[in-house]
Amino acid sequence: MDVVIYHNPACGTSRNTLALIRHAGIEPTVVEYVKTPPGREVLAAMIRDAGLSVREAIREKGTPYVELGLADPALTDEQLLDAMLAHPILINRPFVVTPLGTRLCRPSEAVLDILPADAFKGGFAKEDGEQVLDTDGKRLA
C-alpha cells in the first residue's frame, strides 16, 4: 500500500501517526514538509481531499500565524495557501495520504480510518502511554 505522511519529527502527534502506520506493517514515504513542502496543487488537493477548509488546515500554535495577520477573516484561500507555502510550519500536521483517503491526523488515531482494518496485529500505545489498539489490534476509541 502506497502511503505518504507529511511529517514533522519534532511533533509528538506526527511521530505517533508514523508509528501507527509502521505498526500496520507499512513503510510510508516520509516527507518532512518543513524542509520539503508540497507544491501548491498538492497542498490544495490534500486539504480538499481531507474535507477541510484551507483555514482549518493552518497551524496557529508555534508558528508566525499571529505575526502574519492570518486570523483576518478577509483573507482568501489563495492568500492563506501563499502563507502556508512561504512558511511551511503553518501547514498543520501530519497529513497522511493513502489509497483509502486523506486525513489530517489530529489526533494520531485518525490515521486508522485510512489504513486497512485488518493490518494491525497486537496492541499499540502512543508515546504518552495512551492505548490506541487492544491486544487483538482493534481500535479502542
Automatic annotation (TrEMBL):
Pfam families (UniProt xref): ArsC (PF03960)
GO molecular function terms listed in the Swiss-Prot or TrEMBL record: arsenate reductase (glutaredoxin) activity
PROSITE patterns referenced in this protein's UniProt entry, alphabetically: ARSC
One Gene Ontology term from the biological process aspect of the record: response to arsenic-containing substance
CDD domains per UniProt: ArsC_ArsC (cd03034)
InterPro entries: Arsenate_reductase, Arsenate_reductase-like, Thioredoxin-like_sf
Keyword field contains Oxidoreductase: yes
Principal EC category: oxidoreductase
Entry EC no(s): 1.20.4.1
Keywords: Arsenical resistance, Oxidoreductase
Reactions catalysed according to its record: [glutaredoxin]-dithiol + arsenate + glutathione + H(+) = glutathionyl-S-S-[glutaredoxin] + arsenite + H2O
Family of this protein: Belongs to the ArsC family.
Name this polypeptide is given: Arsenate reductase
Annotated organism of origin: Ciceribacter lividus
